[in-house]
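Predict the structure of Diaminopimelate decarboxylase.
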Amino acid sequence: MNSQELLNIVEEFGSPVYVYDAAKIEYQYQRLTKVFSKVEQFKVHYAVKALSNISILKVLKQLGSGLDTVSIEEVQLGLHAGFEPKEIMYTPNGVSLEEIEAVAALGVQINIDNLSILEQFGTKHPKTPVCVRINPHVMAGGNANISVGHIDSKFGISIHQLPHLLRIIENTKMHINGIHMHTGSDILDVDVFLYAAEILFETAKHFSELEFIDFGSGFKVPYKKDDIETNVEEFGKKLTKRFLAFEKEYGRPLTLAFEPGKFLVSEAGFFLAKVNVVKQTTSTVFAGIDSGFNHLIRPMLYGSQHHIENISNPKGKERFYSVVGYICETDTFASNRRITEITEGDILCFRNAGAYCFSMSSNYNSRVRPAEVLWYNGKAHLIRQRETLKDILKNQIEITL
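Done. Here is the predicted structure for Diaminopimelate decarboxylase.
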């Protein structure tokens, strides 16, 4: 998408606004499936938590994707979007047995990540196929908050608990049809991931009726100029070779699955906001926008750097700005960032706003959430209306005092 198309969207739908380019989502999906083209049974399960708008789910369904879900509500969204239950993987963490049973009743693939629930579920429902999530204790991820494979992680069943896991399966006679791992987001070293994969292959040998091996995801995407990213082509080539060898060793066909979220939608997203005020202090020039961490919290929560450009003045002289929001506490998107000269009323574009931006937004400070727009086949489609005060009041109950 070009700057003028984005400015036209602001003109039509107002600011701030989230915009998603369907063509980029398709490009990323095809890129991933291409590198695993030699695997006969390859499946992508899109991680719904990254961006859960129904229209985005429909775009991915059209491409052939399944879904990776972490809550019963995400499962229900997937079913509403037209996915078959068998196309949906459910990998919760710390939820009740009752929720897991409710999802299983919908026919969705269950993935259990702790021994307690596994034993309880297996005792009551031994014939229901279950996948188990293993923690290989291999660290991946560029930030501690998104690295989930370490030894103190709450995610997954420790590889060191494998004897206990096998004992539960033997005692309950439950059916294990898949094995899964997730080391964390922002994979920086392909060989580290492949080392974790070897642990999963060794673990898989203990299960005789597997139908699939799920390697999670965590592919890193570039967030700024010359940023590093996961070399998916190298990764695909190496893992394909190893997977095909293991499949032959295992003695039956297996599906190789991944659960990309950020990889598919991050670069497809743009967040557009208007500059309310340019404020000069003794040492800093602030560009204050009509948004805050209620709409894009990743820079504050993860320290992530979203590239920011002034699409109202793309060829202007560059100056240094700190871009800040309107929230009543520290609310800084960028400090001392080089951006083309900004004047009040300009539109700033935040790149990589497709993943974990709207999905992590809130009504903090009683601010409404922005509209979402999908750019599809050269046309802007409104896929979520901007909230109003009525939405904030909708579920509140006034009492008589």
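The chain has twelve helices and 18 strands.
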